[in-house]
C-alpha cells in the first residue's frame, strides 16, 4: 500500500478550519436515511467505513443506522474533533491509499465530501481490498444549487480562488471509473436547504473550504468583503435573521466485483 501525500489545500486548510468546518458545513437531507438503510443495507450487523470522515458530519448519519462505524481521517485536527463528538465511532488515522484495516473486512465504505481528493485507480484498489465480496462503495456530495442566481454569484466568488484544488463539480473524479473491481455507478439526487444565520451558512461555510482556509490573510479579508457585499445586495439575505442556502445532494454507489 502506497500512502500518497495529502493535497496541500487539504493539509493546510483543514488543519486551520476544523472548528469552522463543524459550524459551517450543512447536514444531509432526510431522504438519505432510507438510501443508507435500503440501498446500502446498513444495519446493526454491518460494518461501514467513513473514509475522509473530517469532523464527522456524515459519521453521525452512519451511526444512526446502528451499523458499526469506523471513521478514517488523515488530518489530526479533524480526527480529534470527530473522536470527541462521536465516541461510538472507532476513529483511525489513515488515507484512501493506506486504509488501516484487513482485507475483506467491511460491508460498506462511504466517502462523503471526500472522494474528489483521492479519485484514482490506486485508491479504488485499496477500497476494493478492504470491502467484503459484494460490498458497496458509496460516494456522497453536498453541492450548492447554482440554479439560484445569488448562489451562482457566490459560486463564482469562491471558484475564482480554487487554484489546483480538486472539486466535485468539475467531474474530474469520474475519471477514476470504470474500475475493474467495481460495477457501474448508480446515482440519485436529493434537494434540501441549509438554514441558519448568514454568518454560519454563508460565511463559515465558505471559510471552511480547504483552499479558502489556506489563503494568506489579506486574500481572506478581500473575500470577506466580497461576501459582505453579496449579502448586502440581496434583499432576501440582508433582511433576514436566518437564510436558506439551497443544496443538492448527489449519492452514488457501486458494488465490488470479484
Automatic annotation (TrEMBL):
GO molecular function (one): methyltransferase activity
Domain Methyltransferase type stretches: 49-138
Any single GO BP term: methylation
Keywords of the record: Methyltransferase, Transferase
Family: Belongs to the methyltransferase superfamily.
PANTHER family, A to Z: METHYLTRANSF_11 DOMAIN-CONTAINING PROTEIN, METHYLTRANSFERASE TYPE 11 DOMAIN-CONTAINING PROTEIN
Name this protein carries in UniProt: Methyltransferase domain-containing protein
